[in-house]
Design goal:
CATH superfamily: Vaccinia Virus protein VP39
Radius of gyration: 16 Å
Shape: globular
CATH class: Alpha Beta
Largest sheet: 7 strands, mixed
Bound molecules: S-adenosyl-L-homocysteine
Distance between the termini: 30 Å
Order of helices and strands: HHEEHEHEHEEHEEE
Number of strands: 9
CATH architecture: 3-Layer(aba) Sandwich
């Protein structure tokens, strides 16, 4: 794996910055400190790969900025046997951050080239999330229920299929809205009761229907 001392130093600085920005979960910080973000984007962006900003990837999509990746992950409070579904594999960076917390990761991407590219990076890093090319609106009924669901694209509303695939006691973190997205954490308190909390506004690429 290509990872220089300079890149490692920049990664360590990013972890300090995320601490300053209020990320307190040490397991999340450790994971950000381990994952080589520069390998999830084009080589030409390497020098800015550890700045707290989103980065362009294929198909006009983006890797979310590290503070958002860390914040969404922290909100889910992942335990090491949790079964987690991610919607929007994209570059695979968020998937890799999750994978250090639990290896029971399922991730769906609707764009074929991103799906294929992320799988190559996972192979290179020798990590093994379960990857699916498909429409995240449908979730993965064959693998449900999940302890946690993380949506990394902005959804116009909360998809009922995903609520159905959450365990009782499980949580979903999902940005909801049209242009700007409010970060929601939805807890399935019981079969008939959901608890909703909000955590500020963000801007995500949209969650779109159907694979392509
Ligand atoms: N987690 C990614 C973020 C990528 S941006 C990363 O760390 O790089 C969000 C991704 O969601 C994009 O790749 C986009 O193609 C994908 N996406 C949008 N709608 C989707 C859907 N319905 N199902 C699956 N993926 C979707």
């Amino acid at each position: 794996m290509y990872d220089t001392l300079l890149l490692q130093g920049m990664r360590a600085k990013l972890v300090l910055l995320l601490k300053e920005k209020g990320i307190t979960d040490q397991k999340v910080l450790d994971s950000i400190g381990k994952v080589p973000r520069h390998l999830f984007t084009d080589r030409s962006l390497e020098r800015i790969a550890y700045e707290d900003r989103s980065l362009e990837i294929l198909c006009s999509q983006t890797i979310s900025q590290p503070s958002t990746v860390a914040f969404q992950t922290q909100l889910l409070n992942i335990k090491n046997r949790d079964k987690v579904l991610e919607i929007g594999t994209g570059s695979g960076y968020q998937t890799a951050v999750l994978y250090n917390l639990t290896s029971r990761i399922y991730t769906i991407e609707r764009q074929k080239s991103l799906y294929e590219n992320a799988r190559k990076v996972f192979d290179m890093l020798n990590i093994h999330p379960q990857c699916f090319f498909g429409d995240g609106y449908l979730g993965l009924p064959g693998f449900a229920p999940f302890d946690k669901i993380l949506v990394t694209c902005g959804a116009p509303q909360v998809p009922q299929n995903l609520i159905n695939q959450l365990k009782t006691g499980g949580m979903m973190v999902i940005p909801v809205g049209e242009n700007s997205h409010t970060m929601y954490r939805i807890t399935k308190v019981s079969d008939h009761e959901l608890k909703s909390e909000t955590f500020g506004d963000y801007k995500f690429v949209p969650m779109l229907k159907n694979k392509c």
